[in-house]
Automatic annotation (TrEMBL), chain A:
Protein name listed in UniProt: Multiple resistance and pH homeostasis protein D
Gene Ontology cellular component terms for the protein in this record: plasma membrane
Keyword vocabulary terms for this entry: Cell membrane, Membrane, Transmembrane, Transmembrane helix
Record lineage: Bacteria, Pseudomonadati, Pseudomonadota, Alphaproteobacteria, Rhodobacterales
Entry's Gene Ontology molecular function annotations: NADH dehydrogenase (ubiquinone) activity
Entries under InterPro entries matching the protein: CPA3_Na-H_Antiporter_D, NADH_UbQ_OxRdtase, ND/Mrp_TM
Annotated organism of origin: Thalassovita mediterranea
Function: NDH-1 shuttles electrons from NADH, via FMN and iron-sulfur (Fe-S) centers, to quinones in the respiratory chain. The immediate electron acceptor for the enzyme in this species is believed to be ubiquinone. Couples the redox reaction to proton translocation (for every two electrons transferred, four hydrogen ions are translocated across the cytoplasmic membrane), and thus conserves the redox energy in a proton gradient.
Alphabetical list of NCBIfam families matching this protein: PRK12663.1
Gene: mrpD
From TrEMBL, chain B:
PANTHER family noted in UniProt: ANTIPORTER SUBUNIT MNHC2-RELATED (PTHR34583)
Localization: Cell membrane
Segments of skewed composition (Basic and acidic residues): 125-137
UniProt xrefs under Gene3D superfamilies: 1.10.287.3510
Domain of life, source organism: Bacteria
GO cellular component, one term: plasma membrane
Lineage, broadest ranks: Bacteria, Pseudomonadati, Pseudomonadota, Alphaproteobacteria, Rhodobacterales
UniProt name for this protein: Multiple resistance and pH homeostasis protein C
Membrane topology value: Multi-pass membrane protein
Chief location: membrane
Amino acid sequence: MSWYLATPLVLPFLTAVLSFLMRFGVWGRWISVGGNALLLIAATLLMVEVLGAGVVAGQMGSWAAPFGITLVADYLSAVMVVITAITALAVSIYALADIDARKEHLGYHALFNVLIGGVIGAFLTGDLFNLYVWFEVMLISSFGLLVLGGSRAQIDGGVRYVVLNLISTILFLTSIGLLYGMTGTLNMADIARVLPSVENQPLVTVIAMMFMVAFGVKAAVFPLFFWLPAAYHTPAFSVSAVFAGLLTKVGVYALIRMFTLIFDHDVGFTHQILLWVAALTMITGVLGAAAQNDIRKILSFHIVSQIGYMIMGLALMTPLALVGAVFYLVHHIIVKANLFLIAGVVERTTGSTDLSKIGGLYRTAPLLAILFFVPAFSLAGFPPLSGFWAKYVLITAALETHGWIIAAVALLVGLLTIFSMTKIWAEAFWKHHPAGIDPKLTTLSPAERRALLLPIAALAGLTLIIGFFPQPFISFAETAAEQLLDPSAYLTAVLGGQA
Amino acid sequence: MEALLALTIGVLVATAVYLMLARNVLRFIFGLVLISNAANLTIFVAGRLTAGAPPLIPEGAKAPVGEVANALPQALVLTAIVIGFGLFAFALVLMFRAYTHLGTLYSDDMQVAEPRSTASTPSHLTKDTQMTERPAE
């Protein structure tokens, strides 16, 4: 059993060590691609196992549940691991052309794979302190990736990113300490079992709020998101793409896990706050994006506004809303990573990502235009692309609970997202290049073109598949939501008979 | 003993927050060190204090005899100290780089990644220098 759980966790670290040793040749980057391909296989195997068993749990070192460290995968964890592996593989192929030799010598591939390992660890662990450790693994490698290359803008963005994330980390650590003091255990399933019998329930709500703030910084929700647009447009495009796709989503995942499994004692209070947070996150994110004129800055603000939709699904806390949140997570990671990868190609062919300095891509690179069209308008929620179904489910869930305001906000933000995507489309693709250049994909070497466009096309294809055949994904998300709302299967899998 | 530690944690957090609110990023770093130690102490106290009873298992026995101190928070604090040290080292180097590359320690003056407007950015801040290049002394 634990073999399925441990492999996706061990593989990235193995890949990291090997690619670090081989970083001075061409082998390092291919080890990274190969390692991530194996990771995808391991993640798929885990998924198959979870589809069969419902929840898979393994005790590391064979220490029985509340004492040892538990790895556990339910439907949500399993799909997050698979989607992480897909993103990691796509970005590692893209990095073949995007990352120069100097960054490779500094250890780009090692840091990248450690980051992936940290993300997967956070998805699979069933132990709160272990979750903290995986967050740190993720954080320290993301620090390295962010400033790798050391341009002034990177250092500047890095300062904000590091400062705010360290504050969140300390808050997270303190909350773990307090929660441990109240329950005497760190195993998440065991905490969920013990917590209802704790005498001081108001203090539990206080700790819940501390966790909400700590994970809120990681997930970049209003009003804690300012580090994200300050930093995400500065590093290499591969790095931006993997950050945009995965890092904030780990925060969202942690929020969903904590506020369905552990802190579901005072839903009226905590989830009401989450609902306000969701609405304000959506609005500020999309308005921030409207004011920007650089592709990566626009996309960064859109990460913030999209996070709002996922939090909205969690805040409504109905089965349908959680279906929407899970579906949105999966759809969003693919689309967002892809848009940042496309921004990289735009920069390479036109020389900039500043919308006032570029243009002409529709005429000279129609393939890229189509590849941009799919994720961009999926993000905006055009039917029948994947984003439409995600928004449709969430807004239906909001209407079912008579949440008229949040439904209206979600619809309005969808409209404003179209505005931003149309802006990129009109400026980068339709208008003529202001300097009179004809940006062509053929300026890239054939090998570069393959490495850059293959992952973009694959992710766009995946968006189309989810869009045209949403039924299996929706019914998967339904089971995931059922497991989140009724954690008895999770508790039994982790704790055995005593739950 | 708990009261004394709680007071210590309170003083540490208060000092740390004061330092972290400063615009000088170096002060922020010092605040960070203090507050992470406050977090470590919090975990330690949350695990309940048992004075003078180290969690040692006598020879021949399979479990500690009598009431002993809780060893788990100590392990957690140890892990947190190690991680915190790594993060602190990184943050210190980053602030040093920020000082050498951006020429300032004041967060208000760091405007390369998010310029307020292109017109007001001082000309010496717009040129992109790589890490390999040393700024003129």
